[in-house]
Amino acid sequence: MALRSLEVGIMGCGVAGQAAASFLADSGHRVSVLERFREPRPVGAGLLLQPTGLAVLRALGLVEAALSAGARIDGLFGENQKRRPVLDLAYGDLHPEAFGLGIRRSVLFDLLHHRLLASGVRLVTDTEIIDVVREGARAIAVDALGGRHGPFDLLVVADGAHSLLRERLMPAARAPLYPWGCIWTTVDDSQAFGAVGLLRQRVAGSTMMMGLLPVAPDKLTMFWSLPVADLAAHLPLDLDTVRDEALWLWPEAGPTIEYAVAADDFSRATYRHVALPRWNDGPVLFMGDAAHGTSPQLGQGANLGLLDAHALARSLAEADDLPRAMELFAQRRGPPTRFYRRVSHLLTPFFQSDGHLLGVLRDLVMPHACQAPLARPMMTTVLAGLRRGWFATDPLDAEGRYLL
Ligand SMILES: Cc1cc2nc3c(=O)[nH]c(=O)nc-3n(C[C@H](O)[C@H](O)[C@H](O)COP(=O)(O)OP(=O)(O)OC[C@H]3O[C@@H](n4cnc5c(N)ncnc54)[C@H](O)[C@@H]3O)c2cc1C
Q1: Fewer beta carbons below 10 Å: N end or C end of the chain?
Q2: Ligand 1 centroid distance, CA of 403 (Å)
Q3: pLDDT by residue (tens digit) across 8-28?
Q4: Distance in angstroms (rounded) separating the CA atoms of residues 144 and 53
C-alpha cells in the first residue's frame, strides 16, 4: 500500500526542491517549502537540460513550454586554442530524435515555480532553516529567528551545493570546494552561435576555458573559468584580463566577448564535490546538490536533481512505510549520482586546474576517444545523462526520449 498524505517539509525552493514539491503534492501529500529568500529566485547560470531532465519536465507537464523558451542543443563541440577538436559528441548518435535543451535558469525557475503554486504547495519565504530537531519519528525545521516549522513526517533538505544543513545534520559528509569555478553571463546571440545547435567550448591547457551555451532562440550564456581565489566576493573581477585572454583564445567570438565584458553583468560560481555517507537520517532526506553536488563539467546537476524529485514521489508511492521508501529511493538514485559525481571529479582537472600536463594529455586523447568505436557511445551516453554506472546505461524509447 502506498504512503499517502504525509506532512512533508522541503527546505530550498531550487530546481530539485520545486520539482519534488509539485510531484509530492500531486500524489496527495501536504507539502510546505521553506526558502530563505524573501522572493524565491533562480541562482546561477544558463543550463543544459539532458533527455533525463526533459523527461522529468514532461512528467510535470512543462516540457512544451521549456522547449519553446529554450534552444535545442544537438551536441557538444570543443576545440583548443589551435582550433584542433578536443570534444565532438552528438545526441543524434543515440537516436535521431534525441537532443538536449539550453535554457535560462530564470525560465526554468518560473516554469517550476508556477507549477508548484498551482499544485497547492504551501510556500514559506524569508525563512532560513538552520537546524532540525526530532520529535519522535517526525522532524521539525528551526529557522534563524528560532521559529519552528512542522512537525513533518518527511523533511527534505534541498538547499543546494553549499548546504549549511548538511554540515549540521550529516557531519560525516564531505563537500570540498573545487579549486576552480567560473564567471558567467547571458548575452544577446548577435553572432548566431545558436544556429548550429551546439554547446561550444574553447580551451587552452587546463587553465583557460570558455563556453558558449545557447539558452534561448536569441540568447547565449558565456562561461569563463577562473581559480576560486579570483572569485572571492570582496574582490572586483579583473574583466580587462578576462577580455584579453578570451579574445586571444576565441577571436571569432570577439563581438560576443566585447559585448559581455562591456555589459559587466557577470555572476560568480564555485562548486563542491559532495559525498554523503547515506541519503537520509530517519525522516530527514537529502537530495539535489545538497546530496551530490558536482562540478558542472558534464552538465548534469540540475538533471540529477529533477530525477531525484521524480524518484522520491515514485518511491513513496511504492512503499508502505517511510524506511522502505527511503531504501527504494537510495536504490534508484545511488548508482547514477555516484557515477556522475565520480566522473565529473575525474574529468574536471583536465579542463580546470593548474596541472599543465593534464591539458596536453586531454588534447592528445579526447579527440581520438570521441571517434573510437567503444569510447564514443560511452561518452555520448555520459553526456545525455543515461549512465547508471560504468557498465549500465538507461535506454531511450522509440522516440528518442528518456523513459522515467
Ligand atoms: C556555472 C554552473 C553551470 C551549471 N550548468 C549546469 C548545466 O548545464 N546542467 C545541469 O544540469 N546543471 C548545471 N549546473 C548545476 C545546477 O545548477 C545545480 O545542480 C542545480 O541548481 C541544483 O539544484 P538544487 O535544487 O539542488 O539547488 P539550488 O538550485 O542551489 O537551490 C537551493 C535552494 O535552497 C535555498 N536555500 C539554501 N540554504 C537554505 C536554508 N538554510 N534555508 C532555506 N532555504 C535555503 C536557496 O536559496 C535555493 O533557492 C551548473 C552549475 C553551475 C554553478
Answers
A1: N
A2: 24
A3: 999 999 999 999 999 999 999
A4: 33
